[in-house]
Design brief:
Length: about 80
Amino acid sequence: MELSLGYSHEIHLMVPHEVKVEAKTEKRGNPKVTISSYDKQLLGMVAAKIRSLRKPEPYKGKGVRFVGEVVRKKAGKSANVK
């Protein structure tokens, strides 16, 4: 499986045969990757591996997120310091 996560290169990830991966892109939206398997533990491990490739960063919120996950954003630098 190849992933385009915003880096200058493609990420290649080997997925076990028991896991089924589907990607769907809707108009003007982020692509959604759906993974399914009969083995819940293996499914969680694959989902965690995909997320670890690009974790959500706290300033812009970019990265791989689970559905329904809320990323708390931090405030940036303050320009008016006296």
